[in-house]
Amino acid sequence: MELKISDRVEFTEYAKKDLQELKGLILENLNESFDMVRESDISNLDSVYSREEKIDLKVKESKDSHLERMKQGICLPMAGVIYTDILTDLERISDHCMNIAQEFHEINLVKKNRKIDRLLPSI
Q1: Is residue 122 scored above 90 in pLDDT?
Q2: The CATH number of domain 13-119 is 1.20.120.80
C-alpha cells in the first residue's frame, strides 16, 4: 500500500509520548558515543550500555502497549504499521550507538596494550 501526503496518519498521544521518550534516550546515546570518539574518552561507556538496555526495554514495552491499543481499536492499522517500523528503526539506531562505543573501547584497549608493550623491555 502506498501512502500519499493527503493520507495523513495520526499517532495516539501514548505513541507520541513513547517516541519522544525514545528520541531523548537515543539522542543522549548518540551524543555520548560521538563524544567518546571526539574526545578519546571512554568514561561514558557504561552510561551508553545502560541507556541501550533502557531503550531495548522501552521499545518492547511500546510495542506491547501498541498491540493492546490495536486490540482495543484505539489505533488505526496503518498508523500501527508505521509506528512499529519507527520503533524498530529507533532500536537499530541505538544498537549502532552501542556498537560505536564498543568499537572505540576496543580500539583504545589495543592502543593501550601497544604503549605498554613499547615500555616493557624485551625479554
Answers
A1: no
A2: no
What is the model's pLDDT at position 123?
54
Per-domain residue ranges for the chain? 13-119
Mean pLDDT of the chain: 85
Tell whether the model's pLDDT for residue 102 goes beyond 80.
yes
The DSSP string of the chain is ----TTS-----HHHHHHHHHHHHHHHHHHHHHHHHHHHT--TTHHHHHHHHHHHHHHHHHHHHHHHHHHHHT-S-HHHHHHHHHHHHHHHHHHHHHHHHHHHHHHHHHHHHHHHHHHHSPP-
Cα(92)–Cα(86) distance, integer angstroms: 10
